[in-house]
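Model it.
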Amino acid sequence: MMNFDKMTDFLHHLVDEYGIPTVDCSINYKGEEVYRYYYGEGISDKSLYNMYSATKPITATAGLRLMEEGKFKLTDPVYEYIPEFKEMTVKKKIYTGGDGLKYATGNNPTGDELNEERFEIVKAENPILVKDLFAMSAGFNYNTDIDGIKKRIEENNGRFETTWIIDALKDEPLDFEPGTHWGYSLCHDVLAAFIERVSGKKYDEYVQEKIFDPLGMTDSTYKRTAEVEKRLAKQHRYYNCDNCAREIDNDNPYCFGEGYASGGAGIISSVNDYSKFVRAMSMNGVTKDGYRILKPETINLMKTNALNPEALKDFNWEHLKGYGYGLGVRTMMHPELEGIKSVKGEFGWCGAGGAYVMIDTDNQIGVFYAQQVMNNQEPYVHPRLRNITYSIFGF
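Modeled.
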């Protein structure tokens, strides 16, 4: 019989000793919830949380459903569906050598020290492929303080539609040639706009119809209503200097304006609700009553590393040691590394407030954890959640 005392002790430690105000966790096994615990002042099993980037696995799932329907191929150029992205520019790093001439990286024939670095904007050689939107290899970045976003919001009295991200980014130079590197970015916001173009439906309506409603995710929404605000857990910011968190407002800076359903950070949900998605995915994409979110072979594709060796070097966050990046999710490639309790193919993602998604289809284990803390301490919290879980299940 499974004993979850180690998990409960850890969650108490996070609140009582580490300084995270509230914690909320669900563990599923073979399609059943086997552990549910929340702790901290002011929350209940009905508390809502800003999912932030834990939105991304759901957006990727929605996109992959359309792939299953033959609406696109991953190797298609994005401009076939978003013509605005046909002519993109890219930043090219240029150095001035000792001879005063300009050289691209590593091409200084004089051997003299490169004494100046800057960028030139040139036409991109590679098209953005659909798979680049899923795999964060399109060349976009996460700079939200750009004129294309700010101007639209100002001109439309605070409104910003999901597809407007296309116009906001089409004239922004990419950080690198598409397909050559990994860069955490607005790729999944663009993916949401892509889903609108391909499905012919609003992105949030498509997610509602294909994921939220069939799974009974009645708490999950992109809309910040008065009722939602009442149920939101208080948001905090963690201060490492004194191991404590102080309350801040509940705003989500990644939702640019009214009407914007962010594919990268827009969902508000509860642990009870999001766990329904995790549970179905851990069962190879099917619910207990037979609704299929994704086919098993599509989930296998999703959790297969999509980065080439050069791009994989960019995926170097310390707490994700051993992982690669698939189609919208981290994916465990090297569980044999020291200190890692996991299995190859375990996958998921996380959120800026501390949400954590862990899915293992081989062993039918699913974990969802939420907190509402910016500067979320994920390098400390998330690997321990994973390691404790696998210890409980005998790994």
